Amino acid sequence: MTLWLPVTWSPPLVVVSVLIAWFASYVALDLARRIGNASALAARWWWLGGSIALGTGIWSMHFVGMAAFSLQIPLGFNLIITLASYAAAVAVSSIALYLSARPHIDRVHFIGGGLCMAAGICSMHYIGMHALQMDPAIAWDWRWVALSALIAFVASLAALRIFVWMRGLPRQRRVLWQMLAALVMGLAIAGMHYSGMAAAHFPLNSICRAADDISASGISITVASATLALLAATLLTSVLDTRRQAETTRLAASLQEANQALTRAAFEDPLTQLGSRLLLEERLRHAVEVVDRNGKRACVLFIDLDGFKPVNDSLGHKLGDEVLRIIAGRIKVTVRKPDTLARVGGDEFVVLMEQVEDRSRPSLLAERLIDAIRAPIRIAQQEVLLSASVGIAVYPDDSAAHRLVANADVAMYYAKQAGKGTFCYYSTDMEAGAARLLDLQRDLRRALANDEFVLHYQPIVAGNHTHHLNAVEALIRWQDPHRGLLMPGVFIAEAERFGLISEIGEWVLDTACRQCAIWREQGMLIPVAVNVSAVQFRSQGLVVLVESIMRRHGLPPHMLTLELTESVAMDDMTHTLMMVTRLRELGVKIAIDDFGTGHSSLAWLRQFMPHELKIDRSFIEDIEDDPSARAIVNAVIQLAHALKIEVVAEGVETIAQRDLLQAQGCESLQGYHFARPFPATELEGYLRSHNPLPAPENGI
Q1: Domains of the chain: which residue ranges?
Q2: What are the E-state strand segments in 597-700?
Q3: pTM, full prediction
Q4: DSSP conformation class of 275
Q5: Where is the GGDEF domain positioned along the sequence (predicted)?
Q6: CB-CB neighbours of 697 under 10 Å
Q7: Per-residue pLDDT tens digits for 540-589
Q8: What is each CA distance from 577 to 104, 465, 699, in whole angstroms?
């Protein structure tokens, strides 16, 4: 019967070996994920460094496990054979990391990879055992050897399966599952090692011929410490690189999102989510190129809503925007999918049709668009009715490429002149109309530069029998050198369209205040009223502008009244109250112009508390013959008096109108019955003949 040397184990080193196996497995899982997510070049470097770090960890577990084992004789390890064992550990690690980085592991690679890894693990272990150089040779229990090989194969398959499974885990759950998976892998590796050790038997007279080479007991702690440090450094590098890559990915995503937002802002209308003018121009260039290649046509339909402005004024800004969104939705479902739809102005839309073979197709689309827009809109318990005028221009039939939109715009104006709610094709005889619009835009800019605008002043007189002058309203005129004196109805709408209304409004305010200051210096204290456009009133800089103009001309604030239409004042209540509060703090008066045409309420008036209400002329002109108009005017006057608000009646043209308004207690009257608007030079004579009442210097 063969006697064997008794075997003893160091429990602390056994525990350390298992911990190394667990930690090495955890690092392996992290590296597998890292390699799979890295670029091709970075993945190669991670694979190479990871194979060395992971191989060192697996080999260290084996070496520390061997050090935990002792016989009653001195033990050591042959250096060359030990290095071969280490090379086998690195080789099996490289196979594992290579397979884990593959997008998919099929059955052949899965089984083949498991066999290769098991062979490498077994080679590392048994080559390491051979490094003992025992004499006589180690006696093996082949049942335990087979079990260790089976454990190595199963552990390898489990590792590959875990590598693949870990890819799909969400980030929040990854660390916990990675630790549990690493524990399973570590126990499997340790199980293979210690089952292999159990297979070894050492005859009683055995000696270790490598006892003088490497002493396991002397360097085991050093190897374990160095290995743990290497694995920790590898893991830390992986974590830091992952964070760096995540931050880079986050920044790239933020940059992409910002670029997409900028693109949307440039190519999308924020109100309707239709295309913008910039998108239209881009698509138009492409459409022209396609036409030049295949000989078909490109067609532009310019759509303008008829009567939208009074609807917007009546409903207010927010509901007006909702109407535009509804109209945009109707247009969108009416046009063809390949067509480009853009909003190019407040109530203006453009449709670009490409690959048009038959000129009748734009006509059919225009009719469908007009019908779609004509359908009633129910909003805020009201029914809104709109129509549309459509202008059509076709390239290359009747329009040059760079004039397509402009010519369609001209054709749209001809459709409006034809009665609205219809469409019209552009023709070359409309050129004069297109040129007129361009000339008007150029002339308006020239008028601002050359000071061609002038102010006329219409008296606002007392509503009693004296008819003393209370104030004047500044009204703009254009003294065109070629066309003579032009009324605002000729150019104000176009000034708004061309974006010049703010500049013109600033000129009116400055000129009126300067003239009022001149009259004051001459001893005539005549307050002046100035109309403020919607664009001006929505500007945050209006208060600063008013204050600077009054300071520049030395004008007391109570000498200036700013007139807002009821619809502008009601447009954005929060903004209106904020602006009115700031203007009242300056001492400027506020008047509501065209009162009765909007949708203000008693509660709103009490909150807003303007200095004046100006009754719209549409009520005044019917006051003689229409009892309902007379009742409405009387109700407004009584309401204003109850709130201590003064009333101005506009459009007084007859004696009967004057007498009725006086009888109802209207404080101020304005209209052709008293005086038409005059230039400042003529108004001075009027002032002298009507004995103006001095305005109090401390305001009201």
Answers
A1: 9-237, 277-426, 439-679
A2: 612-615, 646-649, 668-669, 678-679
A3: 0.48
A4: B
A5: 296-428
A6: 10
A7: 788 999 999 999 999 999 999 999 887 777 766 777 888 888 998 899 99
A8: 66, 36, 21
What single letter denotes the amino acid at residue 97? Answer: L
- Residues with Cβ within 8 Å of residue 90, at least 6 apart in sequence: 51, 52, 55, 56, 59
pLDDT at residue 294 above 70?
Answer: yes
Q: How far apart are CA 230 and CA 232, in angstroms?
A: 5
Please give the sequence-ordered ranges of beta strands (E in DSSP) within 74-184, or none if there are none: 134-135, 139-140
Helix (H, G, I), strand (E, B) or coil at 478: strand
Q: How far apart are CA 509 and CA 504, in angstroms?
A: 9
User: Cβ neighbours of residue 281 under 8 Å, at least 6 residues apart?
Assistant: none
Under a CB-based contact definition with an 8 Å cutoff, are residues 612 and 561 in contact? yes
Domain spanning 439-679: which superfamily? EAL domain (3.20.20.450)
- Residue 425 structure tokens: 């094709």
To the question of domain 277-426 being in CATH 3.40.720.10, the answer is no
Q: Where are the alpha helices (DSSP H) in 461-528?
A: 488-497, 501-521
Task: Count, in order, helices (H) and strands (E) of the chain.
Answer: 24, 23
**Other C-beta atoms within 10 Å of 506: how many?**
17
User: How close are the terminal C-alpha atoms of the chain, in Å?
Assistant: 128
How far is 277 from 262, CA to CA, in rounded Å? Answer: 15
Q: How far is CA 64 from CA 23, 30, 118, 403, 650, in A?
A: 14, 23, 20, 85, 104
Same CATH topology for 277-426 and 439-679?
A: no
pLDDT of residue 244: 62
The structure tokens listed for 533 are 């456009």
Q: What is the pLDDT of residues 575-613, one digit of tens each?
A: 788 888 899 889 999 998 877 665 555 666 777 788 898
